[in-house]
Amino acid sequence: MANLSSLALFHWQEVITRAMPTNPSDHLADNLKALRTARGLSQQQMAKAAGVPRATWTHLESGAANPTLAVLIKAADALQVRLDELLAAPAAPARHIRAAELPVRQRGEVTVRKLLPESLPGLDLERMVLPPGGRMTGVPHTPGTREYLTCERGTVELAVAGERYRLAEGDVVTFRGDQRHGYHNPGPQLAIAYSAIAFAPTRT
Fold it and tell me: Among 15, 41, 51, 160, which one is most buried in terms of CB atoms within 10 A?
């Protein structure tokens, strides 16, 4: 990073100009502290990773620093974030996602709604609404995947590996998600179930 060309330097200066607030140190200090704390690192450890003196890092987090471009790049590299993320306004502590914003799909008679607004590595959560008599064939996942099915309302019948399991409200069945499986509501009332899918780690 020390051998940045004049063109690259100009580019990052433009990024900084666009990203920085009226008081540039405000966002920078908050982001540095939040990102370091989230990683469970001390200021000393963070300064070492960035290749800057401890006093420099402490000064950055104080909000009183006026860092050079080289120092900003070192801090961003050490935290493994983009420079514009380091300078942007801190993200809100919580995000309210309306039900209408979550992806919904229809699988035959069954309505399936995602419960996670964004993808999380190795995890998927779904809510299934099964009308009386409703059925849905599950899609086998990659080998090693585990699935956890719980019945929230009514009755849900799970067919997996030639066996059938009838779940009453509150029951949970855990099974290998890489097998053929299916869901059925054998009752006269609407049934609601939740499926947590833990995918097997991918090998690189």
Answer: 160
